[in-house]
Amino acid sequence: MAFPLRGPYLIGMPFPETRRRMIALAAAAVLSPAVLRRAFAAGEGEADVAIIGAGGAGIAAARTLVEAGKRVVVLEARGRPGGRAFTDSSLGIPFDAGAAFIHFAERNPWIGLAEHYGLELLHWNGWTHFRPHAGGRFLGQGYIDRRLRARKALWPLLEKIESGGPDTSLAQLAASLGEDGPTAIRDMAMLSIGENPERISARDYASLWDGSDKVVPAGYGTLVAMAAEGLPIRYGCPATAVHAEADHVEIATPLGVLKAGSVIVTVPVGVLADEVIRFTPGLPLETVHAIEGIGMGALTKVALRFDGERFGIAQGDDFVVVDFAGGAMTFEMWPFDRDIVIGTTGGDAGRALGDMGEAGAITAALEAFAEVVGEEAKRRFVSGRLSDWWHDPLSQGSYSVVRPGRAGARVALARPVAGRVWFCGEATAGGGAMTVGGASLEGRRVAKAIIAGTH
Ligand SMILES: Cc1cc2nc3c(=O)[nH]c(=O)nc-3n(C[C@H](O)[C@H](O)[C@H](O)COP(=O)(O)OP(=O)(O)OC[C@H]3O[C@@H](n4cnc5c(N)ncnc54)[C@H](O)[C@@H]3O)c2cc1C
User: Fold this and answer.
1) Which residues form ligand 1's pocket by a CB distance below 6 Å?
2) Residue 313 and residue 296 in contact, taking contact as beta carbons nearer than 8 Å
3) In whole angstroms, what is the distance from residue 425 CA to residue 400 CA?
4) Is the pTM for the entire model greater than 0.90?
5) Which of 6, 31, 136, 150 gets the highest tally of CB atoms within 10 A of its CB?
6) What digits encode the pLDDT tens for the residues 68-80?
7) How far apart are the C-alpha atoms of 296 and 282, rounded to whole Å?
């Protein structure tokens, strides 16, 4: 067995810094005039619009602004674009460490872009096909039907909340669904939202868009990275402070200060909550309150590569181990007919998996997998990779989750500050929240608002 061991890392970029060290570096960058004077190369220290973060939102905003003839500089802390959309090839077989499914395909701008780049698109058959497994055996149709009934019974309750009922948690709703409700809803929440149901606003959940899902064999991360090509992105350049004046903003970075007419801040809300970026004057209470009202989930993946043995299981014959470490873990079998299995869990189970470190998490996932397919799995295993966004300092979680009772937080966060500082990304995306598509629609919306001069 070969475990590619790494220390604390930034996803997609081995980086031996802890979160505390990163923040210390950031503070030093703000304070050191010598560093500031090095500034951006001639002509690069000013822009019409600065964008912090080159994920789906930042890329969409930059493309829209560049097309409109605006001078743009994108500041990206990592050495690559895409943020939480990243296709990892380190196992020799590509897999999406973050976003993989192009949700609500009917209105998702990435469908058009995939077609534009000539990338193949395939339909994905959704979550309900995963066969449940526990205690050494596959569970029967009776178990599946009970779970489906509990999930179906949730919808009328959500509709009631959407049409004006009090915003409560998904767990509270699940409690009224009979014996199977709490575990059925817990597993669904942890695997789709990446969070335990007691921390999820039912109203926010109810407002999420529906639609069909597509996948791109080249990788969602690959697609997003293609859209970043040619954009004015400064990699390895974290923003450490944003200072708003009456007629411009200044953004401090280790490379110097960037002056711009407006700034679009697309860093994940977990990064905002950690105050890695210092805002002066301080952010309005409404924005601070909005940031407090949104947490981050912990959807966590473990990719397991095998030597060609398929254990008699066909591609797409996916299953879910429902008694995995306080949660459940789905196993997506041989995506795109590749010799790889993707294990996914979330919420506190995802956090616990990340706490184990890469080698421990791979062992745990492989054990759970071997419970189903047999011990032979351990002999045919080649290598694995943990995608732990919860411990990644530039994400601080998988995606935004509105806390119970705080359903207005996304709208409040989206309100521009002082007419020049715009927060945008998946966290402000309303029904498109938690997705690359939603983040990109938000990036485009904010860019258009800045172009139009509307606030
Ligand atoms: C495991 C997992 C599975 C997912 N599955 C799906 C899925 O199937 N489909 C889907 O649509 N979505 C999925 N998502 C969610 C999706 O990845 C995100 O919603 C989307 O990528 C967010 O885009 P964004 O631009 O808002 O943020 P990000 O992609 O996080 O972009 C923000 C950027 O800011 C950078 N940054 C952070 N701090 C600083 C700083 N101080 N200075 C400069 N740059 C900084 C980051 O490096 C990052 O590149 C998944 C996410 C995870 C983690």
Assistant:
1) 52-58, 75-78, 83-85, 98-101, 103, 238-239, 266-268, 271, 276-277, 299, 301, 387, 389, 394-395, 398-399, 425-426, 434-437, 439
2) no
3) 10
4) yes
5) 150
6) 999 999 999 999 9
7) 23
